[in-house]
Amino acid sequence: GDQYRIVRHFHFTTWPDFGVPEPPNTLVKFVRSFRERITTDNNKPIVVHCSAGVGRSGTFIALDRILQHIKKYDTVDIFGIVHEMRKERVWMVQNEQQYICIHECLMSVLEGKEELIEMHENAGYEDDETMAESGI
């Protein structure tokens, strides 16, 4: 009865199945927006899923892990991170286009260009004004 949970739902609606967001570096903004809004409490689960749970989900998770890895270690190993993910779930980062997207996103971060793409330039996700929290 008195127990409740807060669920935060992030939905990137314009990311096509088997594809990548256009422009790809809008994914950087989405990942950063997600990372800023989640709690740092490691006891709370994070669920990432697309229709099959490998292509778009894998691309999102890989980019998030890479950005976290860079903050902590100041190194980059895209292949290594994707390889580790694929040991846990086959087909994470499903195709070449998604693998290239990760590289393009990382290049935009390293070159400082991701700030040039504003959220309003891709309506695939909403800002805080339209986010809803649900108690379950």
TrEMBL record:
<dbReference type="InterPro" id="IPR003595">
    <property type="entry name" value="Tyr_Pase_cat"/>
</dbReference>
<dbReference type="InterPro" id="IPR029021">
    <property type="entry name" value="Prot-tyrosine_phosphatase-like"/>
</dbReference>
<keyword id="KW-1133">Transmembrane helix</keyword>
<dbReference type="GO" id="GO:0048666">
    <property type="term" value="P:neuron development"/>
</dbReference>
<feature type="domain" description="Tyrosine-protein phosphatase">
    <location>
        <begin position="1"/>
        <end position="109"/>
    </location>
</feature>
<feature type="domain" description="Tyrosine specific protein phosphatases">
    <location>
        <begin position="25"/>
        <end position="100"/>
    </location>
</feature>
<keyword id="KW-0325">Glycoprotein</keyword>
<dbReference type="InterPro" id="IPR000387">
    <property type="entry name" value="Tyr_Pase_dom"/>
</dbReference>
<dbReference type="InterPro" id="IPR000242">
    <property type="entry name" value="PTP_cat"/>
</dbReference>
<dbReference type="GO" id="GO:0016020">
    <property type="term" value="C:membrane"/>
</dbReference>
<keyword id="KW-0812">Transmembrane</keyword>
<dbReference type="Pfam" id="PF00102">
    <property type="entry name" value="Y_phosphatase"/>
</dbReference>
<dbReference type="InterPro" id="IPR016130">
    <property type="entry name" value="Tyr_Pase_AS"/>
</dbReference>
<keyword id="KW-0472">Membrane</keyword>
<dbReference type="InterPro" id="IPR050713">
    <property type="entry name" value="RTP_Phos/Ushers"/>
</dbReference>
<dbReference type="GO" id="GO:0004725">
    <property type="term" value="F:protein tyrosine phosphatase activity"/>
</dbReference>
<protein>
    <submittedName>
        <fullName>Uncharacterized protein</fullName>
    </submittedName>
</protein>
